[in-house]
Design brief:
Blueprint lengths: L5 E4 L5 E6 L5 E6 L5 E6 L5 E6 L4 E5 L5 E5 L6 E6 L5 E6 L4 E5 L4 E6 L6 E6 L5 E6 L4 E5 L4 E6 L6 E6 L5 E6 L4 E5 L3
Antiparallel strand pairs: 1-2, 2-3, 4-5, 5-6, 6-7, 8-9, 9-10, 10-11, 12-13, 13-14, 14-15, 16-17, 17-18
Length: about 190
């Protein structure tokens, strides 16, 4: 944990607002210069915040200065979810354009575009092992990916309707998903 005692939130105005948890007061506002913010992620090392917009653009901010460091324009449609790797070196995004993108945070380089879902990709979560991440989609699938090899290593097909959320437990031994079929499924990780 970073020791920051604050809560971040996106808005329809394209601003990311920082509120003090104890005070409840606005402490900082970051301007994405964009449209509606759909997703937000805090880097585990406490240095960055990233947000994804309805316009498919990702903004990465330096938290110490509030400065916009990078604007990434890789997606053609809204970014539903994004997550930093546990070491804060990579940022993984997913979008309604059915793709998943992996960026080098420090240099803002796109290091991979992955495909494999048949429809909108709703959520992405990095595994604590710093090597794998999981995605879920309206195609009713949950996929586990190898970030280094940039390929899908396992697909779960248990859901019967679109899958909205996916998350790893704290040590990466289990993965959970939730879908419109009104089921929450816990998986033993195949890796």
């Amino acid at each position: 944990s970073s020791g920051i005692n604050a809560e971040y939130g996106g808005s329809h105005s394209g601003k990311i607002n920082l509120f003090g948890i104890e005070s409840g007061k606005l402490e900082q506002s970051l301007d994405t210069r964009g449209k509606f913010t759909m997703s937000i992620a805090y880097s585990p090392d406490g240095h960055y915040i990233a947000c994804g917009g309805i316009d498919g653009i990702v903004c990465i901010f330096d938290l110490a200065t509030g400065k916009l460091l990078h604007t990434l324009e890789g997606h053609a449609m809204p970014i539903r979810s994004l997550t930093f790797s546990p070491d804060s070196q990579l940022l993984t995004t997913c979008s309604d354009d059915t793709s998943i993108k992996i960026y080098d945070v420090q240099h803002a380089n796109l290091i991979g575009t992955l495909s494999g879902h048949g429809s909108f990709v709703f959520c992405v979560d990095f595994c604590p092992d710093n090597t794998h991440f999981a995605t879920c989609s309206s195609d009713r699938k949950v996929k586990v990916w190898d970030a280094g090899m940039r390929r899908c290593v396992h697909t779960f097909s248990e859901h019967t309707d679109q899958v909205w959320g996916v998350a790893y437990n704290e040590n990466g031994s289990k993965l959970v998903s939730v879908a419109d079929d009104k089921n929450i499924i816990i998986y033993e990780c195949p890796i």
